[in-house]
Amino acid sequence: MTIEVRVPTLGESVTEATVATWFKKPGDVVAADEMLCELETDKVTVEVPAPAAGTLGEIVAPEGTTVGVDALLATINEGAGAETPAAPRAAEAAPAALETAGTVDVMVPTLGESVTEATVSTWFKKPGDSVQQDEMLCELETDKVSVEVPAPASGVLAEVLAPEGTTVQAGGKLAVISGAGAAAAPAPAPAAEAGQTAPAATGKDIAHAPSAQKAMAEAGLSPDQVTGTGRDGRIMKEDVARAVAAASAPAAAPAPQPAAAPTPRAPVPAEDAAREERVRMTRLRQTIARRLKDAQNTAAILTTYNEVDMSAVMEIRREYKDLFEKKHGVRLGFMSFFTKACCHALKEIPEVNAEIDGTDIVYKNFVHMGIATGTPQGLVVPVIRDADTKSFAELEKEIAEKGRRARDGKLTMAEMQGGTFTISNGGVYGSLMSSPILNPPQSGILGMHKIQDRPVVVGGEIVIRPMMYLALSYDHRIVDGKGAVTFLVRVKEALEDPRRLLMDL
After folding, report:
1. Can you tell which superkingdom this protein's organism belongs to (predicted)?
2. Would you call 476 a catalytic residue per the annotation?
């Protein structure tokens, strides 16, 4: 019987991966659940286990091939050559045990770099419901994103171990699926023992993930300095990232201060309490509250203001918006102008694009622009990487696409990390003026506001112009007042005369 080895679910919004390493070659004997190959995505390394014992037949996707979810990787000739003299029926026993035991554990997936726990927010199925492989079982909520958990196999949801509201750790068990469909899933521990053969033992000697070995070499770490979370303690790429973060955390972070006890709530009259509604804060809202307060406690935040005449930008939009949309398939908005103007100013005032690391200042020779986006769940900040190298059309497309995915709760952790500067547009809600709070560890954030016709003096005459107040909040520990004011003036100049962006003035 021929068994197909296919690409597993790679995670929310991840649709393809690259085959990094094959641990077996055609003709090799494999045991059930033994690692066959390793796939690399943009964020994590994924190991693909053998769904059954047998002999590896054809490798359809060799190393270096880009494959999509559920694509065929290889075939296994079940049972052929899988027996050993010491245990002539062991290979046949493993598949039988899978079918009779018929249970598959539903585990918490990898949640993203530095994220170790999540809260079970919603179960879409209840015990006793039939499920299909890859059907969504539940949704987890982390500090920043929602993660959907698919069924690893078809069958019946037998038991829910983590009900809604439970806090679970990465790699923890969520539920159990039973039924005939479980035979196609990776074997649980008892079945692995039943089908254990000599090749399975050699699987423990598999080298650490190639991507992890490269990352360790770059970070100057040895394997004994990293805790592996892969099969048999195998070190994965994300394990190295955690070790590097842990090693740098003491230098990067100030000494933690004892948490202040929350102020007790004042007594509420009984007649008022009966009309109140108490709702637990979501993890996202708790994180927003904590990070904003941490920013105020850590950074020396100061805000400087200016105003900009939006006439020139609005005239360019009126003149070219139809041609722009026809050619590029996206509307010409204000955000690309502000992003370009900020990138231009950051080159002249690099400390606004820097961050503090212990007693060092880290200057960034690139701009990863955060665009603060309001969603039904709270404020998130998707990052436009290398915004300083992108065209108006590229910026508009990426800002629109990430804003849409932010509102749908589909952003990944990687898409919200690494920002060097942030723009927040309170004007879309009608804000006339405000003081934005820094997004740590960044040292600057620009606040945009409502465009409003106001009387201004131009050439000695009072005229009506579309004006916008701008606010730059900055970390006064590394950004002086002169630099902050100059930055805001350069943004104002670029917006009032966009030709300066073309001339690099």
Report:
1. Bacteria
2. yes
Q: What's the helix, strand, coil split of the chain in %, to 5?
A: 35, 30, 40
Residue 384 to residue 406: CA distance in whole angstroms:
13
28, 105, 480, 497: the active-site residue: 480
26 in a structural domain: yes
Residue 309: strand pairing partners: 467
Asked whether residue 462 falls in the same domain as residue 331, the answer is: yes
Q: 380: Cβ–Cβ under 8 A, 6 or more apart, which residues? A: 144, 284, 372, 373, 406, 411, 416
* Spatial distance between the Cα atoms of 217 and 221, rounded to a whole number of angstroms: 6
- Average of per-residue pLDDT across 79-101: 41
Q: Are residues 456 and 329 in the same domain?
A: yes
452: domain CATH number is 3.30.559.10
pTM for the full predicted model: 0.51
SS (HEC) of 14-38? CCEEEEEEECCCCCCEECCCCEEEE
- Single residue among 204, 229, 256 that ends a domain in this structure: 204
Provide the pairing of β-strand 54-59 with 72-78. Answer: antiparallel
Residue 394 · residue 376 · CB < 8 Å: no
102 torsion bin: left (phi>0), alpha (psi -120 to 50), beta (else)? left
In a domain, 35, yes or no: yes
Count of alpha carbons within 13 angstroms of residue 120, beta-carbon side: 23
Query: Any idea what the CATH number is for the domain that residue 32 is in?
Result: 2.40.50.100
CB 338 within 8 A of CB 423: yes
The predicted-structure confidence for 432-443, as pLDDT tens digits, reads as follows 899 998 888 899
The span from the CA of 62 to the CA of 34, in Å, is 18
Domain count for the chain: 2
Q: Is position 174 within any domain?
A: no
Residue 251 lies in a domain: no
* 339-395: pLDDT as tens digits: 999 999 999 999 999 999 888 899 999 999 999 888 877 778 899 999 999 999 999
The residue type at 297: N
Cα–Cα distance, 40 to 212 (Å, whole number): 11
Q: Provide the residue range defining the domain that includes 10.
A: 1-100+187-204
d(Cα 450, Cα 471) in Å, to the nearest integer?
Answer: 12
Residues 439, 403 contacting (CB under 8 angstroms): no
- How far is residue 153's CA from residue 177's CA, in Å, rounded to a whole number? 8
Domain boundary among 204, 239, 269: 204
User: Is the same domain home to 191 and 338?
Assistant: no
